[in-house]
Amino acid sequence: MRDVTVERTPDAVAQHACRLIAEWSESAIVERGRFTIALCGGQTPQILYRHLREAPVRWSLTHVFWSDERCVPPHSPDSNYGAAQRALLDPVQIPATNVHRIRGEISPIDAADEAETDIRRALSPAGRLDLCVLGLGRDGHTASLFPRHQALVELRRWMLPVHVSAVPPWRVTATPLLLNASRRVLFLVVGEQKRAALHGLRRQEDLPAGRVKLADGAITWIVDSAAAGTA
Q1: Is the dihedral of CA 38, 44, 50, 54 positive or negative?
Q2: Average pLDDT in the 28-34 region?
Q3: Which in 41, 100, 189, 208 has the greatest CB count within 10 A?
Q4: What average pLDDT score do residues 71-87 get?
Q5: With b meaning 16 or more CB within 10 Å and e meaning fewer, what string describes 117-132?
Q6: How far is CA 183 from the centre of its chain?
Q7: What CATH number has the domain bearing residue 62?
Q8: What total of structural domains would you count in the chain?
Q9: Coil, strand or helix at 189
Q10: What is the phi-psi region of residue 33: left when phi exceeds 0, alpha when psi lies from -120 to 50, beta otherwise?
Q11: What pTM does this model have?
């Protein structure tokens, strides 16, 4: 692990991430005319969304994707899209055509196929996200890539339906093939319960998050002191 910043609190992690996202988004828009970002689920993004609502991001030129989605309707409290919609996307009034959600309310296979078609079309011809925001599970999973799952070695698909040892069990996840093509990845890690996984990655244990290795890009980690063990 390189480029790791330790902040004192989860809010400080979110503020730091927000500054970087605003900077990177503007650079992408200047260079390529738009900014493409994949969001993640979990509690930490909720703090980030509050700050992003006030950030100088040009949402009309931003396209939003998700690194994974739980197979639930968008109004469910478990929906990654629903959480982002309520906390961020509706308040910033992003154009609906710029939001590329994974439809968790349909069958996992159909949702993954639909998401695969959509993201390939949207990212053509470069085939790369400008930024993927990821979290870290206490078992080392990221997106919905769990330990020892076959999705970790997928060599063809960008999006897959997966059945995992979590609730809800059916998910659609980005594969390492898509994640590792990103121009940037930003890991946000908060809480003492993530400390063991974070230390495992530092020891180069074979955890799913450690499979994120960009072919041509930069990975940035922002963690709080509880996760880092410096609290």
Answers
A1: negative
A2: 98
A3: 189
A4: 97
A5: ebbeeebeeeebbbbb
A6: 13
A7: 3.40.50.1360
A8: 1
A9: strand
A10: left
A11: 0.97
